Inverse folding.
């Protein structure tokens, strides 16, 4: 309230007023979308998917994402933009999401689907295009509107993604305001206000945002911290396992939360497994190098954002690793 009063005195629009305006537009768009049957809903969802899946869009937005955030790499983000979007679309097209979705005559029950309302979708800097598009597809499939709260550092890339979705919605006659974005500057206060004003929050990225969503008093779905462990036991094809671990670890420079972050190797195959990982492109750091890597990656208990999600050659230089490390694909500590 104090912020809103101060904003009025200076002629500025307060955070609460900004969020309230977005919510109002979203509800107006939902009211127009309410009469759409399943075919028209699916048409809107497909239009959103096409805004990113289209080859030239997938490439352009991947390039913009890397340019804007400095995270990941373009070839991997192109794959993300297309494969994740196509997979989500395939699954969404298989189900009904409006009107009668199930009848159970033996129980005298008929199930109807109805929208949740306005969805607040918090999205990360590591995935500034695919995550907003996929969340928007899911929201609209249920007849909802979505407002994206992007990572501040990824706003430019995410905004371009939102504009592409809105343009495709207009082409099929669906309300553009079914998909909106928090304007700059995206602050913690603005994201928190949006979470509190929306009917459902779906949060990917910062665990602080996840905790805020779960304590908002509104329904929320939040992602867990990514730290995927992999176990290599005596039954494994070691070279095959090493190749798969490498492929997953280096994809988009390990920005995916499902990327392997730790290996548990049984003693009886430890030496052979390490040798296979080195053949796959890994570099085994010495004890001293390992301490240096850890000290550079972690600052005051937090990841150093200046060196994460970079190409391996960049990291080798940052870590001060010489020799074979310069041509390695990933590093083991």
């Amino acid at each position: 309230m104090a912020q809103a009063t101060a904003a009025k005195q200076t002629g500025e629009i307060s955070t609460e007023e900004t969020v309230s305006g977005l919510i109002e537009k979203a509800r107006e768009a939902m009211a127009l979308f309410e009469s759409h049957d399943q075919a028209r809903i699916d048409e809107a969802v497909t239009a959103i998917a096409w805004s990113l899946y289209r080859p030239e869009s997938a490439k352009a937005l991947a390039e913009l994402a890397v340019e804007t955030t400095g995270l990941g790499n373009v070839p991997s983000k192109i794959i993300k933009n297309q494969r994740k979007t196509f997979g989500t679309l395939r699954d969404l097209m298989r189900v009904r999401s409006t009107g009668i979705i199930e009848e159970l005559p033996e129980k005298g029950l008929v199930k109807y689907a109805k929208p949740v309302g306005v969805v607040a979708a918090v999205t990360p800097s590591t995935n500034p295009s695919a995550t907003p598009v996929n969340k928007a597809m899911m929201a609209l499939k249920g007849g909802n509107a979505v407002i994206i709260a992007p990572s501040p550092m990824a706003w430019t890339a995410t905004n371009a993604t939102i504009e592409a979705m809105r343009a495709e919605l207009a082409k099929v006659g669906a309300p553009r305001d079914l998909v909106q974005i928090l304007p700059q500057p995206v602050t913690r206060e603005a994201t928190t206000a949006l979470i509190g004003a929306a009917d459902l929050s779906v949060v990917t990225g910062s665990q602080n945002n996840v905790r805020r969503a779960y304590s908002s008093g509104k329904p929320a779905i939040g992602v867990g911290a990514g730290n995927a462990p992999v176990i290599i036991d005596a039954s494994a094809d070691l070279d095959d396992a090493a190749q798969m671990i490498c492929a997953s670890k280096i994809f988009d420079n390990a920005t995916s939360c499902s990327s392997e972050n730790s290996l548990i190797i049984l003693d009886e195959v430890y030496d052979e497994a390490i040798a296979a990982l080195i053949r796959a492109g890994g570099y085994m750091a010495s004890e001293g190098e390992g301490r240096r890597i850890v000290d550079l990656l972690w600052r005051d208990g937090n990841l150093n954002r200046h060196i994460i999600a970079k190409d391996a050659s960049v990291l080798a230089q940052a870590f001060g690793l010489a020799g074979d490390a310069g041509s390695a694909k990933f590093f083991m500590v």
